[in-house]
Write a structure and sequence with these properties.
Blueprint: E1 3-6, E2 9-16, E3 21-25, H1 39-45, E4 49-54, E5 66-68, H2 69-82, E6 88-93, H3 95-106, E7 111-117, H4 125-140, H5 146-157, H6 160-164, H7 166-176, E8 190-192, H8 200-203, E9 210-215, H9 223-232, E10 237-241, H10 248-251, H11 253-265
Helix pairs in contact: 2-3, 5-7
């Protein structure tokens, strides 16, 4: 994947296909290639030019000590401008969805429409507890056994239906034992991305057409929280994917892709 300088920060990106541009925004700790297994091929077949990238803080993109929400929004905006994508379609999940929403607010001229998956307007009590626990572990320098960490990641991010299937569960557990980006060399950036802020009032100012996608079994960004976001954004549409956890776009790719393609290809009213 080539590198591009965006406001003095080098980002690792990749683009495929031709046609209207779609920029994917990944969640915390996820590489751009997360979208390549299911979403990128489906959208390229549907006639889109698809761009993915590793956010700052995820090697080989630059990894400053701290990454903030304004940083992430500026990087996405800069990438759209540098590659001549705008106004383009954007789609993000988890933190990527929150970046997408902020981009709609701060640089609406760059966005044609946006898909917000597994998102929230304010963090739940449970999510705040998980975040505090993860930071405490990091600050203490505690390293969990790989097998235990994989099991915790599976419980937090997958649907009970996936975990009830022994073969699927084992495949995911094997994947989750792979080190997260930056862990092997200690260079992963600390994320200070305004995750504790209540953004519902701000979301009422979004004028870009939005589709909010919730995953029925999501513990990190509940389906209820996604419905609340859709209700806060004027004219936003809501779709819910069954039997899917926080990684619903990987667990139920056909259903997710159908919603994506339908929204990204329809004529604007």
């Amino acid at each position: 994947m080539p590198m591009i300088d965006v406001g003095g920060v080098r980002l690792n990106y990749e683009e495929r296909g031709a046609g209207p541009a779609v920029l994917f925004l990944s969640g915390t700790g996820a590489r751009g290639r997360t979208w390549h297994l299911h979403q990128v091929p489906a959208l390229v077949r549907s006639g889109f030019r698809v761009v993915t990238f590793d956010t700052r803080g995820i090697p080989p993109s630059d990894t400053p000590p701290v990454v903030t929400m304004p940083d992430l929004v500026a990087d996405a905006a800069g990438l759209i401008e540098q590659l001549g994508l705008g106004p383009c379609r954007i789609a993000g999940s988890s933190m990527g969805a929150r970046v997408a929403a902020e981009l709609c607010l701060r640089r609406p001229e760059l966005v044609d429409r946006a898909v917000l998956m597994a998102t929230f307007g304010r963090p739940s009590v449970f999510l705040e507890a998980v975040t505090r626990g993860e930071r405490a572990l990091q600050e203490a320098g505690t390293k969990l056994p790989e097998e235990y960490r994989a099991a915790v990641r599976a419980m937090l991010n997958l649907s009970p239906r996936t975990l009830a299937d022994d073969r699927s569960a084992q495949d995911w557990l094997d994947i989750f034992q792979i080190p997260l980006p930056g862990e092997s060399d200690g260079k992963q950036s600390r994320l200070e991305a305004d995750e504790n802020r209540d953004r519902f009032t701000a979301y009422a100012e979004i004028g870009v057409p939005c589709l909010v996608v919730g995953f029925a079994d999501d513990l990190i960004a509940s389906a209820k929280g996604c419905r609340d976001v859709a209700a806060a954004i004027p004219g936003a549409r809501y779709a819910e994917i069954p039997d899917a956890g926080h990684y619903g776009y990987l667990e139920q790719p056909d259903l997710v892709n159908a919603e994506l393609i339908r929204f990204l290809t329809e004529e604007k009213s």
